[in-house]
# Entry
Amino acid sequence: MGLAAGAALLACGTAEGSYASLQVNEGDPEGPVFYDLGGVKGGKDSAAINPGNSAMDNSFVDGQLPRPNGPISPADACVNQQEPAQLVKQPVDIIVLLDNSGSMKEEAAAVEANINVNFASVLANSGVDYRVILISRHREEPRDADANEETLTSICVQVPLSGLASCNGSDEPVFSDRFFQYSIKIESDDSFDAALDTYEPPFESSKREEKYHHAPLGWSAWLRPGAKKVFLEVTDADELEDADDPAQAISATSFVSELQRMAPEHFGADPTHPSFVFHSIVGLVEKDPPTAPYLPADSVTLETCKGNFDPSNSDSDSDNDTVTNAGQTYQELSRLTGGLRFPLCQFDAYDVVFQRIAQDVVLTRGVACDFPIPRPPPGRELNLDNVAIAYASGTVGTTAQLGQAPTVDACQPDAFYIADGRLNLCPESCSRVRSDPLAAVTVLFTCESQIIVPR
# Structure
């Protein structure tokens, strides 16, 4: 995305004499300097607005604000100054949740085989600043024919993604700048609970503590401020359908709400528009071709994938080759957050699946929908109510000015809002900008309020 950002700072006044700025020339060859008086009318202001100019009186006289060259006129009261901002690529933190239950042997092996070659390599080649946080049990023993179930359903990540030289028997995971692992067992029906309970202490029980004591503060310690958050769920079950007590299970909306309660700076504050993406590899039926993803607009399906299970083969282990359901809860979260969905049963084709997910991360990671408020020049103040955003389409050649919603709840098309010291595009505006790779966004400071009336 081509993103241009600039700030036009204006000092505003009225014909009645209540001027918001004081112009001081002081022989500056580059032109006048404006000091903001905050709209104060009458009385005296401090000498701070008139540094080094003892010959100048800071008081209003007959409703006019004097200056060395006479009163400021309304025509002089608004002067633009452009301050271009640099485009900063948005990094991405990818949280992988891998089910370690007994039916996940082939899937765990497929994830392990592809996380370096067909996932991390695509991200690395794209130049994106990425970090993988794996929440799943680490594999300590070699994966061979004699391995036990715990070994076969665990995962080991080696170089170049991690710092581990070899997975042929490793005591514990080795981290790198790109890779961290929170080693616990994830059951078929508790990915959401495991992710929430290990985010930060206190932990629910000792089984939620990272096995090697590498994360006493939880996996939240590995998240980076300002990085886009992407989840990848890999399981053959469902949070609600397979829970021992469905009444205690966590729904997709509850998961979002709890994440946002704990860390709105990472996951957003609006439950209907989370600021993260959730991809899922679950038990839904294959498309044609089998590796084609379900897109966010595709409805939730209840039909399950079949994989390689052959009912005519008595040696085939149906527990390992079939799934119990289509992972409806994870599908719902993928649809809500704009994520992709893939059939779990196609573990022989995980190379294609992981490449596609990595490509999606690359395509969406750098399109920021929030911007810092440009800092004014020394001596100047900004009226945030007067801020606007101009969006220029790089594909159809049109320009639109976005109005300012007073809060995120008042968002509407062609609007933005200010929160936490940043300018945030409303969801529809964000989607439009993200779909336009040549879009240009400019921050404007105008002379009148840009607050729109909520619908």
Observations:
- Confidence is low (pLDDT under 50) at residues 1-88, 309-320.
- The longest helix spans residues 105-126.
- The first strand starts at residue 21 and ends at 24.
- The two ends are 31 Å apart (CA to CA).
